[in-house]
Amino acid sequence: MTRSYFGTDGIRGRTNEAPMTPEIAMCVGQAAGAHFLRGTHRHRVVIGKDTRLSGYMMESALVAGFTSVGMDVVMVGPMPTPAIAMLARSMRADIGVMISASHNPFADNGIKLFGPDGYKLSDADEMAIEALMTKSQPKLAAAPDIGRARRIEDARGRYIHFVKSTFPEHLRLDGLKIVVDCANGAAYQVAPSALWELGAEIVAIGVSPNGTNINDQCGSTAPAAVQAKVLETGADLGIALDGDADRLIVVDDRGKIIDGDQLMALIGRSWAKRGELKGGAVVSTVMSNLGLERCLAAQDIGLIRTQVGDRYVVEEMRAKGYNVGGEQSGHIILMDHGTTGDGVVAALQILAELVESGEKASTLLNQFEPLPQFLKNVRFAAGQPLEAASVKTAIADAEAKLNGKGRLLIRKSGTEPLIRVMAEGEDSVLVETLVDQICEAVRAVA
Length: 446
Hints:
By secondary structure, this protein is an alpha/beta fold. Helix content is 37%, strand content 20%.
């Protein structure tokens, strides 16, 4: 069935344009609420958001939708996406909602839904909610049964306590200077506080949200800011989160960017040595570098690849019992600690390895030499550019030139009108040339 609203990570789009209008948000609340009204108990939904200007508007619309079908609503304000997953479980909620467009600019927004188990909804649940939105009107509650809405003030403290509990009790961060870039987003209060409470000296940037500066030249998608601050302050490490703090990019003491592949290599190998790696493998996506695969193989650790999207990584991990997975972009999923990517929890695992090893970040975190990999995005207005004969020919030509000595991945983004073109191989000049040629072919029909 074709999806009308849900993409690979919930519903996302430009604010006040379909599907991110208050009207549709209210419909989402009504439909999701009706779908999860199961049993006779008082039903509850936890709603969090990042720091976008449109967050209050979308929150109000969702609250109206959920309460109108009889669900009580607990609002927790700006909180990381993984905090909502955690709170949904700990508060015995029937559903969790995060209002965020993650790493996108402030003018976009999105709605991510979690089930009572803290996991993102299955395709079946999303399709059922869409059916309620488009084919039938959910039954509204009678006047005495309308849901109640309230805000709680201690959600930040609950999450900080949770993330600190994932850090080894015998360790502290004393003596470490850490730059923390919160992207002017959801973790602007909790991330610096958690690390400070564990003993680190914190240099915080990207912690002054004003509604429009989320992800603006800061955070994991613009790491130049944290790179510069690490070098300026002589910090031991830099941590960059994205707008909803479910992904992490690290910068070592020399200012080098450490992506999710390197982080998964470190965690996977360390957990394997301690006998804590379940399934003997790490789960990642087709975007992960071949260097990661070779690095893990040298320690007899497998690499399981899925399609792009952290939800697909989580699905594979749940199905096969793996406990370490993630994406090159910085989503790190540690099933022993949570149900979704968590930038702060992942950072604490890296910091624990740093403290125990006594090494500099530049020594510890560079686990392997990546193969040359180039990724470029081409924005398109409408249609299906990848179906054009000229684009198919360009892709076939590129595959022939790689001649089995690399990888080619061309896909449509699940969250934005972009075609993502990636090539990887041992010849960097060839790889970059092939990416440019395919991008030109896409632009010609886009």
